[in-house]
Amino acid sequence: MNTAMTILVVEDQIREREALSRMLRSEGYNTVAAGNRPEAMRAFEDPIDIVVCDLRLGSDDGLEVLKQWRQTKPSVPVLMVTAYGDIHSAVEAMKLGASDYLTKPLKPDELLMLLNRYLPMRVREKQKTQIDAGGIGRMIGQSEKMREVFHQIEKVAASDSTVLIVGESGTGKELVASAIHDNSRRRTEAFIAVNVTALPDALIESELFGYVRGAFTGAAESREGRFRTANRGTLFMDEIGDLPQTLQPKLLRVLETYRFAPVGSNVESQVDIRLIAATSRNLPEMVADGQFRIDLYHRLNVLTIELPALRERPEDIPILVDHFLRDCAKRHLRSVPDVAPELLEYLENYEWPGNVRQLRNVIENMMVMAEEDVLTVSNLPKYLSGNPLSEQHHVTKGPYNLHDLEKEAILSALKKSFGNRTHAAHTLGISVRTLQRKLKLWGIE
Questions:
Q1: Preceding peptide of 105 cis, ω within 30°
Q2: pLDDT (tens digit per residue) in 381-424
Q3: What angle do CA 35, 330, 181 make, to 5 degrees?
């Protein structure tokens, strides 16, 4: 990481401000800290590359910091941090020009992913551009299933066709998209990612295509959308299956002509992008049910990469565990602990409904909470507690439907979290929206 990159951290709570600054410095960034709006304004004179600003700054308003930064340094990305569920403020921040937003409590992996997305391409760490014994790019695996995925990435990257990545939540679809980009002819241009489920329906169109000044209340200035920002590079649209039906025709036309008009304008412009889409949903079923346009599906489904669930490649779990332990140790400034054989056996046999994301969360939980030098089954998070090697925690070998296993895992997590959907989704390593969609599908309130 280029240490010249500087991040302004605006947070009124001193402990949170210092913890965030410390974490960013451990990743190789320089940091400038501000505890209130006046201090943030004084930082205008510093060479800041990106701003991470809390929405609430005591008696101050983080949106005012956002407005002044957008007026003074419009090219500097601003990431707003909001309390969970404060969607109205998040929408307002996006309308005022925030590049993205995160919810508290901040997850280091999510923040670092956004930093990698918005900081200039020239300062990113050089990614692997060839398949090796351990994987490709930031993907890791030695199983036959993953080797096939790596081989597909290599072939797909050589073309410029649209790609559809399918797989369960938490399998690493954005990592696949990033690896395709980093191995393509567009590797020196921008890789722009947008998660359809992370945006309110009312914001998706303006986020994708931009808007002109006065297009809606709060649009004080024109703003480019993700399609324009990704020009000459790659645009990754995650959870494309959740794209509102009202926007599907417009996306189809853009993919056919690569021309579009921002919200509030009739003037079209053209872009040169490669689109990579991903979904955890069954698009053919959605097409059959009339929820997804068949012509858009065929336009997206030119080249397809299917990602295996983690339970389908348990032989990769040991190297994933080792990688996550080393990564967590680096970020938390701790030594790498050993793993007891019985714990590794448990991890290899667990079903992992949240896939690699859930495994990573479990490893980080144990790493942070453990006081011993050797991790054992006693260090597992509470929702995995009980007898970890009992039959109920093993991958079911019988003739059970995969959807039944998924339903059982979600209902079990909800029971152990006393019905708290946010907590259940976090422990499973999936989004709250995905969990709610599953419950709706099953008719469970």
A1: yes
A2: 887 754 333 334 444 444 445 566 777 888 888 877 767 777 77
A3: 90
3-state SS assignment for residue 228: helix
Cα angle 375, 332, 315 (rounded to 5 degrees) comes to: 45
CATH of domain 312-442: 1.10.8.60
Q: Which residue has the tokens 């346009």?
A: 293
Task: Report CA Rg, the chain.
Answer: 22
Residue 237: pLDDT above 90?
Answer: yes
Question: 316-339, pLDDT tens digit by residue?
Answer: 999 999 989 988 888 777 788 899
Angle of helix 62-72 relative to helix 87-95, nearest 10 degrees, comes to 10
With contact defined as beta carbons under 8 Å apart, do 435 and 410 qualify? yes
Helices (H), 12-171: 14-26, 37-42, 62-72, 87-95, 108-118, 144-157
Q: Write down the architecture of domain 6-123 according to CATH.
A: 3-Layer(aba) Sandwich (3.40)
Asked if the domains 135-306 and 312-442 are classified in one and the same CATH topology, the answer is no
Taking alpha carbons only, the member of 105, 99, 67 closest to residue 85 is 105
